Amino acid sequence: MWRLTRREKAFTFINSSLLAIFAFVCAYPLWYIVVLSFNEGRDASLGGIFWWPRVFTMDNFRVILNDHTIVNAFWITVARTAIGTTGSLLITSMVAYGLSRKELPGRNQLLLVFLFVMLFNGGLIPFYLQLVHLKLINNFWVYVLPGLFSIWNMFVMKTSFQNTIPEAVVESMKLDGAGYTRIYFNIVLPFSMPLFAALGLFTAVGHWNDWFTGAFFVNDLNLQPLPTYLQRIMSTIEASQMISASQMASAHSVSLYNPDAITSKSVRMATIVITILPILFVYPFVQRFFVKGVLIGSVKE
């Protein structure tokens, strides 16, 4: 039985200790936000809260759920993430599969064009003018259509298709009369599910956390996603105005919460929790695909 030497044990201990400290430094701010979101705002303003709520309450979340603007922003974010991620994977993988076929006319020239566009873009002003001409300003589809195709993901998928899809299987399906569309859905998709899961998660996180599009290309408050709403209340000097007087009076009249126990800071902490938890829950379901999905196609046998 192989045993670790004293030097190897010391290295393992120091390495594990440093990683544990780094994990704590990364995780504690999130835990602190969660603690403040479940604590009464007035009590939290006194300080001294570090590990768990001192005066537990759900009032901060009741305020948020009673605000139709936040609820609407949440569903806008869910819709754009679901539609944008699915559409991006489908369209990008189709282009990648076409470019992975050596018999495609002009294949090398197309790859050079995609590479050039990926490295050099026109800038923000031409992009905005293009959105104006396409009538995507103040439109829900501004969250979806510009991101339907990712050149970087296309190159990753193309490499994966070339190195992992057996050419013999493709040729046998062609002999059976299958076309490229059937090969794509019957062979390419089943073989590439780990890759799709990894890239799909990265794409979904990008959609979920994107506040820039809603802040600069959408003026209608009813179309702004949750990250934009959160950025707005976090950067507003008078953040307490985000909880309107009418909402406070309405909620107080039906005894939804104690208005004397909440503050703008506690409501903001609860808004952050609602923003990050849904996408955080997705990670455990696709974690097993990470290593295989990211490394698939990286080594050619």
From TrEMBL:
Regions crossing the membrane: 12-34, 73-98, 110-128, 140-157, 183-205, 267-286
N-terminal signal peptide: none
InterPro entries reported in the protein's UniProt record: MetI-like, MetI-like_sf
CDD domains, per the entry: TM_PBP2
Top-level taxon of the source organism: Bacteria
GO BP, one annotated term: transmembrane transport
Compartments reported by the entry: Cell membrane
Annotated keywords: Cell membrane, Membrane, Transmembrane, Transmembrane helix, Transport
GO cellular component: plasma membrane
Residue stretches making up the ABC transmembrane type-1 domain: 74-286
Gene3D superfamilies cross-referenced by the UniProt entry: MetI-like (1.10.3720.10)
Alphabetized Pfam families for the sequence: BPD_transp_1
UniProt topology in membrane: Multi-pass membrane protein
Principal cellular location given in the protein's record: membrane
Family that this chain belongs to: Belongs to the binding-protein-dependent transport system permease family.
Stated name of the protein: Putative aldouronate transport system permease protein
Originating organism: Paenibacillus taihuensis
